[in-house]
Amino acid sequence: MSTDNAISVSADAMAHSHRVCSFLRDQIIECGGWLPFSAWMQHALYAPGLGYYAAGSVKLADNTANAKRPTGDFITAPELSPLFGQTLANQVAGILRSCESTNVLEFGAGTGALANDVLTHLDVLGIKAQYTILEVSADLKARQQKRLASWGDRVQWLDRAPASFIGCVLANEVLDAMPVDVFAWSLPAEEGVNPQVLQRGISLNADDQFVWQDRAADAPLAAAIAQRCPAMPGYQSEINLRGEAWIKEIAGWLTKGAAILIDYGFPQAEYYHPQRHRGTLMCHIQHRAHDDPFLAPGLQDITAHVDFTAMADAALASGLDVLGYTSQARFLLNAGLTELMMSRQQDESFTMQARLTMNNAVQKLISEAEMGELFKVLVIGRGIEAPLIGFTRGDRRHQL
């Protein structure tokens, strides 16, 4: 069955999406006919047994040599090349040595590729790390457990954040999947009337279909938006208050160490740039990106870019230090990506095909036209005195 001209899903998958839609309709009705988009996104992604990350669909691409055709809905940096995780491990090692720990905690570990590559390279560096994972997706957790089985009890899974933690935290593409509030500045009804902050939500039309509906934002939300985004009539964007709350939660249990946050996004001045007037909300299904969250609820990912200024401000307000901020390309090059590539090329078993595959993957990781500039790295922490190698050149904290 096709949901549009480009996307084809099975009858079972479509039946699942219908169940998700029925659940979402019930939530809208229970809330009086209107649901804030943040609540819609929460249910569509995380509703037990139904949401995109809570049900059993394949989310991340299989990028192994055995994959005969593209799978999943998107591919992340760890799946492109083991060099990503190995390079990241160079920075993880520095953090672990600085806080005298061997503990690594990863949020949202995907297929387990990053965990495997980080552990492997930390072993090379002489650090026998203990790795814990907090994963909300049951099917991704199962894939991780299969992939990481050879590490034995050095890899453990948690159901909730620890009460206290000393070590290094990793979060690759976690913030972008947190539910966001969508807002718009109103068009003035008459000359001289200032635009107001509208909160965008979801309601049902006469045919029981999902439609956008705007309401005046409550005072706290309107104030938070007005502090970040200048009043621009008709302008639409997002605010990730849950991401900021998560940063503050990290501050509550990170006793000593650092969290490396990698995601696509911008500093605040770029995030709310006048030219970005339709916001950053995006959906991903079968390696296609679009902006319609109603297309196939439960079958597609829903994301928004990250306002890194807001995340850094949340860290500082909670007593954490902002230790570095730069592009993914600059971070990887600073942390030793080139040296790892050269070392790999010196391996006598390294074939021309392997060289081509590696070079193509690295190009995607560091090219300004691919992930290199769009993705940023923000490191926050407590009690880390030594400088971080990932920010030796091109640190952009002054842009936050």
SSE pattern, N- to C-terminal: HEHHHEHEHEEEEEHEHEHEEEEHEHHHE
- Helix share bin: 25-40%
Determine the CATH topology of the domain at 77-178 and 241-399. Answer: Rossmann fold
Number of helices: 13
Average pLDDT value?
A: 92
Write a structural description.
With 400 residues, the protein is an alpha/beta fold. The chain has a domain at 77-178 and 241-399: Rossmann fold (3-Layer(aba) Sandwich). The chain is 35% helix and 22% strand. It has helices at 11-30, 37-46, 77-80, 82-98, 113-124, 138-147, 219-228, 241-253, 268-271, 308-317, 328-334, 337-345, 352-366, and strands at 35-36, 103-107, 130-134, 155-158, 165-172, 181-185, 197-204, 210-216, 236-239, 254-266, 282-285, 288-290, 301-303, 306-307, 321-327, 375-382. The strands form three sheets. Strands 2, 3, 4, 5, 10, 14, 15 and 16 form an eight-stranded mixed beta sheet that branches. Strands 1, 6, 7, 8 and 9 form a five-stranded antiparallel beta sheet that branches. A hairpin with a 2-residue loop joins strand 11 and strand 12 (288-290). It is globular and about 70 Å long. The N and C termini lie far apart (46 Å). The model is unreliable at 1-5 and 64-70 (pLDDT under 50).
Helix and strand topology:
Blueprint: H1 11-30, E1 35-36, H2 37-46, H3 77-80, H4 82-98, E2 103-107, H5 113-124, E3 130-134, H6 138-147, E4 155-158, E5 165-172, E6 181-185, E7 197-204, E8 210-216, H7 219-228, E9 236-239, H8 241-253, E10 254-266, H9 268-271, E11 282-285, E12 288-290, E13 301-303, E14 306-307, H10 308-317, E15 321-327, H11 328-334, H12 337-345, H13 352-366, E16 375-382
Parallel strand pairs: 2-3, 2-5, 3-4, 5-10, 10-14
Antiparallel strand pairs: 1-7, 6-7, 6-9, 7-8, 10-16, 11-12, 11-13, 15-16
Helix pairs in contact: 4-5, 8-10
